[in-house]
Design a protein that fits this description.
Shape: elongated
Strand content: over 45%
Number of strands: 30
Largest sheet: 30 strands, mixed
Oligomer: single chain
Number of helices: 11
Length: 671
Amino acid sequence: MNRLIKWILGMMAALVVLVVAAIVLVPMFVDLHQYKRGLEELVTQQTGRSFTMGDDMDVSIFPWVGVRLSDLHLGSPEGFAAKDMVVVDQFEVRLKVMPLLSRRIEINTFVVDTPQIFFERRKDGRANWEGLGKADERGAQKKPAEEKTGSTDPALPIESLMVGDFTIRNGQIVFADKAAGLEKQITELNLTLGDISLDKPVKIDLSSRVDGKPLSLKGKIGPVGKNPGKSDIDFDLVLKALGMMDVKLAGKLVGLSDRPQANMALDVAPFSLRKLMAELDQPFFMETADPAVFEKIAMQANISGGASAVSLTSGQLTLDDSFLTFSGEAKAFEKPDVVFDLALDRIDLDRYLPPAQEKNKAGVPSSDGKKEAAPGAAPDYGPLRRLVLDGKLKIGHMKAANVTVSDIAAHVTARNGQIAVDPLSMNLYQGSLASALGIDVRQKKPETRINLDLNGVQAGPLIRDAVAKDLISGTLTADVSLAMAGSTPDQIKKSLDGKGQLTFTDGAIEGIDIAGMVRNAAAKAGLGQQTAEKPRTDFAELTVPFSVGQGIFHVNDAGLKSPLLRVNAAGKAYLMKEELDFRVEPKLVGTLKGQGDTMDRSGIMVPLLVTGSFASPKIRPDLAGMLGSGLPDTEKVKEMIDTKKLPATDVKSLEEEGKKVLKGLMPGLKN
């Protein structure tokens, strides 16, 4: 028995000696270059591409199984500018032998030195990476069967993994799209992974230059665990670009084996978008009136989502002097189905809009009333018909088109092609606006409805800011309801339908002196002298009821009331031809009442006609109407204004107002 044991031990000792001798002596005496040709042919067969490697080769077996190869070339197909798709100066990997017996992998070195990858797409659309690996068709046919019979257990067939040095040095990636005339390069690519294992986070240190611009990524990710996909994977990364942009991403990947999802916090440090675009040698994407905007952008948000839905919470966006808080969710991306809640403190939109265009030399608007050019393809409202939307918006203070508003609140909804902004409210110019807007895109032509309610708005400052002119002043109240169909100006004008009323109190019409017009008409009739004063018509109340339909804007009974003066107006505005046809009837009446006067008063009337185009209206006296109503004379004026019928307290005021109006209307009359 002892002899048997000694014999077995002797055999084992001899075997160990032979193994050690083989491990030590084989690399010394075996010529590895005789296998080089066979290895090149094997790779060529598996990839379908030419493959060569240099003569500098080294293999070790114990205690590290290692290989070092140099000058590796994987070719491109015929007809491409880049002869090789992949070039590697040197590749080295060393793996410890003994731990393999316990299913433990310990890699001492994994180094790829100066790899170069060339991706190329020709003008005919063919790419050099297409068809890679198709040479072995039998292997491709067997693969599905092998996958089908393979184990579904995601557990790795190893107990542990440790990598000492994982490095990619001085890499280069070139992408050239000849069809698009595009070429991008990643150079100075260096990647180091540290503490690689299954149960510890992996350190990442990546640096490179993209088209000569610096880009880096540092941080940790993992651990992945022994059952990849079954446990969450944490990550904490910092991306730096162009020396001016820092982005932090921290969170975890969950459900990788079932429904992958990322939950993370995003933090973008303040940066200048203009400088970023300039550093990328790209023109800025829009022209702005203020060249100093987009100089400060920062964002923070919590993001959670996967392939079916994404949500944003605790969002904060800084845009120059504006600060926005936001949250939202998007799902059913084929629609999509979106919910959002936005709150903006303030913004001056005029700074972000394009610069104001100069008027044409003639000073005439481009619209001349002519028919539009033949329309192109009809707008595609399919995306709006599918859209599902529920959003809330609040803005504390906003300036747009030089108009300032505050306390904006809006609720926007969309479903089945029906879009609504209801309610929409805001404060502006000491008053308020309440509105509701509805757009229906279920048919070929969109249908729009607007209800508008203005209360207590100071019209003078509003119009002055909006159009840079003094047109009318006073406190404005309005109630307007309009409907229209179509997407072009002509379609909207033809279909416009609705009604409303504008009421101005305690104001003035700037640029039009109704008394002066009457006076000038009288002067032409020999009753007075023309004067040159700044045009202005003061009033206590001005009401403009209107209706619109079939492309015609109707004003049936607009009325202006002021002490001793009444003005009634009626007529039409033809929206398609952009022409006016109005008759204005100024009356001199015997009362100091203005606002609130409901009596139908008679008086001296000198009618005016307003015709011409929107851009160049013409105003002239209606001589036939004036003669028909009789020319005013001193006795008629005295008879109309009889102070005996007035209370004693109003006589003095009437005399003073009467002098002003009478001198304005007919300077030739004596006191």
